Every structure is written in C-alpha cells, then in structure tokens.
Amino acid sequence: MKAVIFKGKNDISLMYAPEPRIEKADDVVIKVTTCSICGSDIHTKYIGNQDPGKIIGHEYCGIVVDTGAGVRGLKKGDRVAGRPAYSCGQCYYCRHRQQSLCVNGGIFGVLGTQGVQAEYARIPFAENTLVKIPDNMEDEDVIFAGDILSTGMSGLLKNDVGLGDTVSVFGAGPVGLCAVACAPLFGAGLVIAVDILDYRLDMAGRFGAVTVNASKEDPVKKIRELTNGIGVDAGIEAAGSEATITACIRSTRRGGKASILGLIDKPLLFDLRKRFYDMFTLTMGYGDQNHVEELINMIAHGRLSVRSIITHTFPLSEALNAYDVFEKREGGCIKVLLKP
Ligand SMILES: [Zn+2]
Ligand SMILES: [Zn+2]
Fold first, then answer.
1. For the chain, is the Cβ count within 10 Å smaller at the N or the C terminus?
2. CATH homologous superfamily of domain 149-284?
3. Is pLDDT of 49 > 80?
4. Residues with Cβ–ion distance below 5 A, ligand 2
5. What pLDDT digit, counting tens, does each position of 302-337 carry?
6. Please, what is the average pLDDT of the chain?
C-alpha cells in the first residue's frame, strides 16, 4: 500500500509499505478514507526524532475492514473516526482519565505503532481508540474531533472558562482556531485571537474573535486595553514559541489561568517569580481525548463546526505536494486533508 514514510531528518517520502494485519485480539484494521497533516507531523519531519521507515500521521477517519478476536463493539463496514493516541483503558493513567500518558499506549506515527497517512492502518485497543461516525456525517465533519479539536477545547477546560470570561488565544493555526470555535460552548465573553498572519486572523474573526496582529501591534498592550487594564481571565497558547508563551502569560490577569498547548521544542527562559505572587495557574500539554464523543455530538447537532478550516484536499498520491502547501502556507492554507 502507499504511505507517507519518514526516511530521515527533513526527508519524507511517499512509498510502498506492507499492509497492516491484526496483531492482537483488541486490534482492528481500517481502510483509511481521510487523513490530515498536523503541525506535529512537520515537527517530526524536521526534528527527526523518529525511526526511519515509520509511517507518519495520526488524524484520520476510516472503515473497519478486519477485527481482532476480542473486539465486540466494532464490526466490518463501520465508519470510524480515531483518536491520535491509543490507550489500554486499564493502567493507572487511563483509570485517572489521562489516556495520553498510558504506559501501554502510544501515538500513531510518533511513539509506538505506524501512522495513518496510508491506505490502511492497524488500530490498537480499537474500542478505546475509535468512535463510530453517525450515518449522516461526513469524514470532514468529525476528523478533527480526536486531535486538534480535543486539544483546542482542552485549553478552555484546563482554564475553567465559564460564563462571560475573557479569553486570549495566541496562534490562530488549526489548534488555536479550534479553541476559538469552542469558546462559545463554555459561555466565554470576549475572545481575543493573536497571530501574525491576517488570513488566519480573518478565520478567527469568523469564529467570533476580536483579532490582534502581533506584527503590527504589541498584543500584551492591546489585550490590556481590551480588558480595562486587567488582562484576560484565561490565556491559551497554541503556537509553542517563547515569544507567544511569554506574551500569553503576561497578558493573563493576576489570579488568572494560562494553558500552553503549542508543542515546545526548545528550553524556555521565563521568570515566574512575579506570577507566583499573583497566585497564577499555569498548565501545559495537549488534551486527553476524553470528550471525542461529546464533540461529535455537538457537531451533529449544529453547536459546533470547524469544517471551514479545511482549505485544501489532495489525493494521498500527492502527499508530498500537500506537505509543501501546508508548510509554506500557500494559498491561505490552514488545514490539509489527504484522501487515500
Ligand atoms: Zn495532530
Ligand atoms: Zn493505559
């Protein structure tokens, strides 16, 4: 089968790979119908922290084509959307609803099993990992529920956002836009999106945010102006740079909460002393995929849609071109789908 394969640092290729088979009783194999390219796939490509030969990708929908002997809740022909991480459901972390930390689990194409940018994929712990797609929904409606939508929403959950709260979102890429799109579900009042690309800010504006272009004005100063000098109740950082993390923390109010969702790939220097006396709460890390079913339910009932962030769709055979478009942000690119 065709698959997007990591060959070495800064070297990915579309190659043939063996088709996956059931290896354990709780596996299923899916025919991938849609997968997407994630910012973290670009990290994998450039940081090169991966074994050569690994299939990349962890955002996907598909159709079940084979099931292990222990699988009861899924059958051949079921349409499914997947979580990016698979987890056993039984270890200490899973029992504490922190499946992303599962000691028996992994992340498709990153840690453990092969990724999903391929024609077929093996899904471990399938009944924990997959969610059935309602008949009247398309892959495009639900593909982000497992990863970027769960992660974006986790910024609101970790910050305990409630009625009328003011929220900043630094980085209007896919995760940041998902956070902006989910903010009304929590009753947020003012939502301020910060980025340096106008076309991304325009999208944030369409999801209801007030926008600040950080290449044209100081976002910390602007956020203070917009919040009567106080700062926002909740800061969400979805870019992973020192500048955005620092600005996010600085523009969140005393006694407020900030959550770092952006992947950090360098050591950060930030003086937390002042925030200590401000009784500040800081959290970090991605979401725990506990609410994938709820998200799909909200999408099904018209409460939420992030389908508009899909700007490009390519056949899997054009995956390398798709990576180029995504990386270079060509043609107003936000999110790219691949169709095997
Ligand atoms: Zn992802
Ligand atoms: Zn576990």
1. N
2. NAD(P)-binding Rossmann-like Domain (3.40.50.720)
3. no
4. 87-88, 91, 94, 102
5. 999 999 999 999 999 999 999 999 999 999 999 999
6. 95
Residue 288 has pLDDT above 80, yes or no: no
Percent of the chain's residues with pLDDT above 70: 100
What's the 157 CA to ligand 1 centre distance in angstroms?
19
- Spell out a b/e string for 129-141, using b for 16 or more CB atoms within 10 Å of the CB, else e: bbbebeeeeebbb
CB-count burial class (<10 Å; 0-12, 13-18, 19+) for 72: exposed
The topology under which CATH files domain 2-147+289-339 is Quinone Oxidoreductase; Chain A, domain 1 (3.90.180)
- Integer Cα distance of 282 and 294 in angstroms: 26
Report whether 86 contacts 123 (CB < 8 A).
Answer: yes
- Mapped onto helix, strand or coil, the DSSP state of residue 255 is strand
Gap from CA of 91 to ligand 2 centroid (Å)? 4
Identify the residue whose tokens are 């050569």. Answer: 52
pLDDT above 80 for 1: yes
Please compute the mean of the pLDDT values over residues 60-78 and round it to a whole number: 98
Ligand nearest to the CA of 109: 1
